[in-house]
Amino acid sequence: MLRTRVIFGILMAAGIGGLLLLDLHLQRRYDIAWAPAYFCVIALATVLAVHELALLLRQAGCRIHEPLVMAASLALHGSVLAAQLRGGEAVVWHIGAVALTPAMAAMVGLVVLALVVETVRGWQHGADSAALGRLGGDLLAFAYIGLLGLSLTALRVMESLNGVYALLVTVAVIKSSDIGGYLFGRAFGRRKLVPQLSPKKTVEGLIGGFLLAMIVSLAAGRWLLGLAWWQLVVFALAVTPMAVLGDLAESLMKRAAGIKDSGSGIPGFGGVLDVLDSILLAAPAAYGILVLFACGR
Q1: Domain that holds residue 131
Q2: Beta bridge pairs of residue 202
Q3: 203 partner at 20 to 30 Å CA-CA among 119, 171, 214, 295?
């Protein structure tokens, strides 16, 4: 198990890191600034994550409108892609006194279409007590995968800091927290952290994850982003707890659904959602911290 996890972890890190560096090469060599490799990866990850979450929710008795959630989530990243193609100018629609952003439009569109689908279903087959669960599940899936995942794209297109490096450092710190927690927990774990949600997580693993995340933040952040040591300490202290919470949040959903992994497509890890769980909650914190530090330069 450990060997498989290490091998596929290295392969994933090398593959994703290579694609991000390919985007950087295309930008510098050919002035292609809209990150084609990244958007292909995030689109695929979004579709797979929504599908896995839909299966998880189905196990818990809630069937969401999966294609609608996928479309709304992809529209968020597509709006950033459109902005990049326009030279970085944000897409905002002004309707009278209201400024409508793509995120707002995607959420409104999802709600309206889901209500239409449920209304037609009710018209044809009668009122269904599960309709409210489906509508609520749609919003949960969109917020969890779409809105939280949008922070990754926001990191990638940062201009005040190098977007590729900002994303690489963020993912490296988050995943080093996961790796440190896993390795320290296996080697020294004695006291359970939250056995009701994740029986294998330990206090010793939590401390090890913090330490490794701090080391990676100081090393990679200084080298790639040029931030001060105290900024990188703050960055690690802000991001690491959110990564742990992200992992526990997915554990909560999996336990509620009565399953161990969100999928089986990635040997040693489970599904795409099992890889993204810590990232989804930690990426917004990382983006907020880096924006603050960039503004203070």
Answers
A1: 33-157
A2: 192
A3: 171
Report yes or no on 68 lying in a domain: yes
Distances from the Cα of 113 to the Cα of 50, 117, 221, angstroms: 17, 6, 43
Please answer whether residues 263 and 52 qualify as being in contact, where contact means their C-beta atoms are separated by less than 8 angstroms. yes
- Per the listing, tokens 């009701």 go with 196
What is the DSSP secondary structure assignment for residue 162, as one 8-state letter?
A: T
The CA angle 279-282-283, to the nearest 5 degrees, is: 75
> Is residue 173 located within the same domain as residue 277?
yes
DSSP summary character for residue 90 = -
Produce one character per residue of 256-294: b if its CB has 16 or more CB atoms within 10 Å, e if not: ebebebbbeebeebbbbbbbbbbbbbbbbbbbebbbebe
Nearest 5°: CA angle at 82, between 276 and 117? 65
